[in-house]
Specification:
By secondary structure, the chain is an alpha+beta fold. It has four helices and four strands, in the order E-H-E-H-E-E-H-H. It holds the Pfam family Glutaredoxin.
Length: 87
């Protein structure tokens, strides 16, 4: 399974929803809280092509996007193959 990284902030409902989906799929992920760390937020924005909202989800080097993007990918049946490295 590919490494999953999710940039979050503590009070973000969309972050909690994205993590819930990943947990339901038994995905182990690295969570980076950017709430009070401007350097990590800048890192996220650089990786996410300027996107500044959280969450920002990455599977390996692939930028998935935010919570809605993650759920859309799952509904389309494309998340599991991406996680397994087939996409």
């Amino acid at each position: 399974m590919k490494t999953v990284t999710i940039y979050t902030s503590a009070l973000c409902g969309f972050c909690h929803a994205a993590k819930r989906l990943l947990n339901q799929k038994n995905v182990i992920f690295d969570e980076i809280d950017v709430g009070f760390d401007p350097n990590r937020r800048q890192e996220m924005m650089s990786r996410a092509n300027g996107r500044h909202t959280v969450p920002q989800v990455f599977v390996g080097d692939t930028h998935v996007g935010g919570c809605d993007d993650l759920y859309d990918l799952d509904r389309a049946g494309k998340l599991d193959p991406l996680l397994q490295g087939a996409a």
